[in-house]
Amino acid sequence: MIRDYRELDVWRHAMDLVEGLYRITREFPKAEEYRLTSQLLRAAVSVPANIAEGNARASRRDYARFVSIARGSLAETETLLVLAKRVGLGRPESIDSALSEADRVGRMLNSLHRSLEKSDL
Question: Residue 63 sits in a domain of what CATH number?
Fold first, then answer.
């Protein structure tokens, strides 16, 4: 049984995604610092933060709710990445790589959410 969120693969991959996005956004124009860059990083950081917070909650139902919030933040992150690519911010191959990692995290979050929902019967 996993007792610490830092042992969760989904949390580790979400942290990898955030780390990669910090590298990607360093290449964004300075004019985007308080616009897309800020919003993208806030949304991405919310993913592992909500996984951690949910894991620390007393009930599986609360945990599932925080995993659901993480899924929403991930969808926002993916949308902002697609927008960044469409408007020519960052290198397309870097953004595509981040989108692939986001997809992986999303599948892992969905699986975690399903397992938490099942156990709450």
Answer: 1.20.1440.60
Number of domains into which the chain is organized:
1
Tokens of 35: 């616009």
For residue 86, the enclosing domain spans 5-118
Per-residue pLDDT tens over the stretch 51-103: 999 999 989 999 999 999 999 999 999 999 999 999 999 999 999 999 999 99
pLDDT for res 3? 75
